[in-house]
Amino acid sequence: MRFIEVKGRVSSATVITVTRNEILYSLNKPEDFILALVEFDDDRHQVHYIHRPFQREPDFGVTSVNYSFGELLARASRPS
């Protein structure tokens, strides 16, 4: 079973917000977690996958983290 977290943004967006629980799940089940970014531009969209998107737990008390949309896209690949 896989867990795919989908985040959609317009192409000009600068950040993606990810919750603490989403990050923790990805770290606990790295082989089963995929972060899917859906990039929208007018009437088209592109889907990008990131396997093992997060490197460490957020600090205690953090509820969500903002990530650079562009940097995440640079690490992403097309779904296969």
Descriptive keywords:
two-stranded antiparallel ribbon, single chain, 5 strands, alpha+beta, globular, 80 residues
Q: Could you describe the 3D structure shown?
A:
The protein has 80 residues and is an alpha+beta fold. Helix content is 20%, strand content 44%. The protein is built from two helices and five strands. It has helices at 20-28, 69-75; strands spanning 3-10, 15-19, 33-41, 44-51, 64-68. The strands form two sheets. The protein has a three-stranded mixed beta sheet. The protein has a two-stranded antiparallel ribbon with strand order 2-5. A hairpin with a 2-residue loop joins β3 (33-41) and β4.
